[in-house]
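Field log, afternoon session.

UNIT: design team B
ACTIVITY: writing a sequence onto a fixed backbone
BACKBONE:
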């Protein structure tokens, strides 16, 4: 089955570009030569004889085994040993060759995640120019992942369209320091960049889009909703911006709840310039009627028999409604009300599904919409604004 898939891939590549040359090996290990470079390719573990996988980075035992292969095949010059198996990227060097472990289209399997941590679906490739090899890695698609503060602070500065931006630490540390006076719980979500830079075999990563939610202690909790002060920024957008906002996370589903559109501050990011964090104080001191609003939602029921009428109104409002704070307009996708409708009335596995004899509360409807915003894997920067739009769609304002 794998052979057929590889042949299909070769046929597709040749249609896209007839200059692409492809090779399928029928051996566990084999090689080919391009100019003065010889590439030895190997999966990293065979299906029969090997007890252990080849390691992520080169050790003495593996180096000796590869040297035997090199001697047997009388290879010389610039030699590169390329292997997969562990779904991770790393480069180390022996005396006679480069040892390169490559990532996987798939990303992390459950076994890989448990034993080696989260790895991104990616493609490692070399650019060959004369005698020089340029290592490059592409992330196959942007996605979000949660990381620790220590990992976040390792983010490197970056240059985008000839504009030099600060390191991740310089943007986020002032916010973390200020909020550490109130809490030690931070939820950090980042969007991984499309391309990583490798220096001396080590990965330099830049976090171009970051969201930090400082979750305040239980004394600030209202009706099972934890208060959060959020900080986020995006520097690879049309207009680089940073946002500080206040909201609440529903403990049952971690959906963001926002009823006050003024609970946000937005500023343009000026390259090489620090951000302003004074909005934190204003937002924390703002009036709060969350308890009343939640009670109203829980006490209000929709007539289930009119659900298709509601769907039509929700779609119409979604098409019409938008919000802007002076940095461009934000809208909900028109698919949002349709997906919410499915969660409420069609998908019995949905946590928001309402039995056929029950009229849904506006609280359930609201959380069905905000769940779609939370699960949106394409937009990390506009969740506050989209949550505010839900109020307008459901006629809550």
């Amino acid at each position: 089955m794998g052979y057929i898939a590889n042949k299909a891939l070769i046929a597709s590549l040749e249609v896209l570009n007839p200059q692409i040359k492809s090779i399928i090996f029928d051996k566990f290990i084999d090689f080919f030569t391009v100019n003065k470079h010889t590439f030895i390719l190997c999966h990293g573990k065979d299906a029969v004889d090997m007890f252990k996988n080849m390691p992520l980075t080169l050790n003495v035992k593996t180096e000796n085994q590869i040297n035997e292969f090199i001697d047997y095949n009388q290879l010389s010059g610039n030699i590169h040993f390329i292997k997969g198996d562990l779904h991770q990227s790393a480069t180390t060097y022996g005396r006679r060759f480069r040892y390169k472990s490559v990532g996987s289209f798939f990303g992390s399997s459950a076994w890989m995640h448990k034993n080696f941590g989260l790895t991104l679906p990616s493609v490692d490739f070399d650019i060959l120019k004369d005698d020089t090899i340029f290592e490059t890695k592409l992330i196959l698609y942007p996605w979000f992942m949660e990381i620790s503060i220590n990992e976040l602070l390792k983010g490197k500065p970056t240059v985008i369209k000839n504009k030099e931006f600060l390191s991740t630490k310089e943007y986020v540390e002032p916010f973390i320091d200020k909020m550490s006076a109130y809490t030690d719980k931070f939820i950090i979500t980042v969007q991984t960049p499309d391309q990583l830079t490798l220096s001396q075999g080590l990965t330099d990563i830049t976090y171009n889009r970051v969201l930090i939610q400082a979750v305040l202690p239980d004394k600030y909790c209202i009706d099972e909703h934890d208060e959060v002060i959020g900080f986020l920024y995006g520097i690879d957008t049309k207009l680089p911006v940073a946002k500080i906002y206040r909201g609440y996370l529903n403990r049952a589903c971690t959906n963001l709840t926002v009823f006050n559109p003024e609970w946000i501050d937005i500023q343009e990011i000026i390259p090489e310039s620090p951000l302003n964090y004074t909005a934190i104080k204003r937002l924390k001191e703002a009036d709060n009627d969350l308890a009343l609003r939640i009670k109203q939602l829980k006490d209000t029921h929709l007539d289930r028999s009119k659900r298709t009428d509601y769907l039509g109104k929700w779609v119409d409002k979604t098409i019409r409604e938008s919000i802007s704070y002076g940095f461009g307009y934000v809208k909900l996708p028109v698919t949002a009300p349709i997906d919410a409708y499915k969660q409420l009335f069609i998908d019995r596995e949905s946590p928001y599904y309402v039995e056929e004899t029950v009229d849904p509360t506006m609280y359930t409807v609201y959380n069905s919409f905000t769940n779609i915003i939370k699960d949106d894997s394409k937009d990390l920067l506009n969740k506050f604004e989209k949550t505010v739009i839900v109020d307008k769609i459901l006629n809550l304002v």
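LOG NOTE: The domain at 2-139 is CATH 3.60.21 (Purple Acid Phosphatase; chain A, domain 2).
NEXT ACTIVITY: expression trials, pending approval
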